[in-house]
Specification:
Elements lengths: L2 H15 L1 H5 L2 H16 L7 H4 L13 H20 L1 H16 L4 H11 L6
Helix pairs in contact: 1-3, 1-5, 3-5, 3-6, 5-6, 6-7
Length: 123
């Protein structure tokens, strides 16, 4: 596990253990989401053929794919944030940041934005 991931995990643990700190400071929430997006776009710029036409169903090979791991880390972390801090505090900020990601020309940013939205549960 790299230093960047350890640092991010530490911030997520703080959000889970001291959610009030994040609820009271929306800038902390914004910064943490942006850090998670940095993880999610830290993947190869070239689209691997397996991403263009993925096989249906579960693909065990993806578990060993560093790009998939980066995206999975980001999405599960966003899910943890929403659960710990609360939808009321995370979703408005996430919405603005996803819109910003979708406006970028880089496909990785658009992918990260879509994957982040996939973590929002319909109530």
């Amino acid at each position: 596990m790299g230093k960047k991931k350890i640092a991010t995990e530490t911030l997520l643990a703080m959000a889970e253990r001291i959610p009030k700190l994040f609820r009271d400071n929306s800038e902390f929430v914004r910064e943490l989401i942006q850090i998670l997006f940095y993880h999610m776009v830290d993947i190869e710029e070239e689209i691997h053929p397996s991403w263009e036409r993925p096989e249906e169903g579960f693909n065990a090979d993806l578990e060993n794919d560093a790009d998939y791991e980066a995206v999975l880390f980001g999405t599960t972390s966003i899910d943890k944030m929403i659960a710990a801090i609360g939808e009321k505090h995370v979703l408005p900020i996430l919405s603005v940041l996803v819109q910003t990601m979708m406006e970028k020309n880089d496909w990785r940013c658009k992918h990260a934005g879509i994957m982040a939205l996939s973590q929002v549960k319909i109530l």
